Hints:
With 255 residues, this protein is an alpha/beta fold.
Amino acid sequence: MSKIIALTEAGLRLAQQLRGQMDDAEICFKPKPFADTVQQAFRAGEPLIFICATGIVVRTLAPVIRDKYQDPPVLVLDEQGQYVIPLLSGHEGGANQWAAEVAQLLSAQPVITTAKPYLQPVYAVGMGCERNCPVDELERLLMDCLDQAALTLDVVSSINSIDIKADEVGLIELAEKLGKPFQTWDVDQLGTMESLLSTRSEYVFNTVGVYGVAESAALCAVQDVTKAAPELVLNKQKTRKATCAIARSYPSGSS
């Protein structure tokens, strides 16, 4: 069970809001004795979310920190719920991924500070469309999305969709024209990305079984390559008949 630790009334309100959206979380409001309570939970391997100043967390946990392979993930949030910082165990402990999930719940900004500059990110495109959508419309949408994300086609590793689109002529033609692999993913695979979606469409869920095809497919694709936490570079963009999103991930072991 994760613990949400709040020290002020404003922090408590945010903790209550967050707990209402989490399946397994306990609120600790002004725990006493503070250091002993927090350190005991940390030693027990409990994931921790602090709603307070980062300095308080650093000073409190410093005596019990071991290494990134053993320590539980620790997040720090501001009282307004605008930012989510993965403070400890970013990659190995899953704090970066958890930060992205919590930020999604709060419509906040994850602040990922893990060093990555020496690693080449993997980018993938996810697309959804109505049956028999023209390839020209798909190509225009994809190119517009690349422009918005300030990316070139060269960095795109693959074009991806849901498995019921495995025979979609327009997507197949687009991938062949651009010289990119076309991959599809099943509902179970796409469903693992639900917490990272920018929006959730009940209509799409009722139609195909997932809350978003384009974003989920892009996220699945980069995670499959890097075996590390994926993130959206460009949220879903739409035309009348198609959707497109771009995701990236850095190879594991970047911290």
